[in-house]
Write a structure and sequence with these properties.
It contains five helices and two strands. It is mostly helical. A two-stranded antiparallel ribbon has the order 1-2.
Length: 195
């Protein structure tokens, strides 16, 4: 009976938190002038609470790290039973976290996503002297954006015709210099620069 009550209260709490997060998202998406005083107050309260929780969480992590370092500084034979248990629990939690992080990175890698980076084009698009975006270099071709991160990107994703490797934009003058030096066509020089 007590566990049912606790489960029900937890479910209600999660529902309230979810509703609040949706409300906060709605407020954040409104233009600045359209937010009422009540909405601004709610947003401020939410941010303050979130900030306090983050600070406290950081403090607890530092306390735990300090305690582990203190235990590790004690020779193994001189550690108390409680210190051994605390150390084992902390090291097990750390290994579980590392394993989870490794699996997450592997999943991201398999999906072909790099955190925060566009696929196909590294860095920001180069600008020419007039301030516009440079045209694609010879040897690169446009491919339709097949991933949401590529949508709206000036290059969409430049790919070498020869190897299928994503290319960064190569300045036309560099491709011409490489072609003159190696006797390769500018298209071949641009494709070979990264292929």
């Amino acid at each position: 009976d007590a566990s049912d009550r606790k489960t029900r209260k937890n479910a209600q709490s999660r529902a309230r938190a979810s509703k609040l997060r949706q409300r906060i998202d709605e407020i954040r998406n409104k233009p600045e002038g359209a937010k009422t005083d009540e909405e601004l107050k709610l947003l401020g309260t939410f941010e303050d609470r979130r900030s306090r929780k983050n600070v406290r969480s950081r403090e607890r992590a530092l306390e735990k790290k300090g305690e582990i370092e203190r235990i590790l500084a004690i020779p193994e034979k001189e550690r108390t039973q409680q210190e051994r248990v605390d150390l084992e629990v902390a090291l097990h939690a750390k290994s579980r976290k590392n394993e989870g992080d490794r699996l997450r990175r592997e999943r991201i890698k398999l999906m072909g996503l790099k955190s925060g980076a566009s696929l196909g084009v590294r860095g920001r698009p180069r600008k020419n002297r007039e301030g516009g975006v440079q045209p694609l270099p010879p040897g690169a071709q446009m491919i339709p954006p097949s991933h949401p991160h590529l949508a709206g990107h000036p290059y969409g994703g430049a790919v070498s015709r020869t190897s299928g490797v994503p290319l960064s934009p190569v300045p036309t003058s560099l491709a011409a210099q490489q072609a003159a030096a190696g006797g390769v066509s500018p298209a071949g020089a641009a494709a070979g620069a990264f292929g």
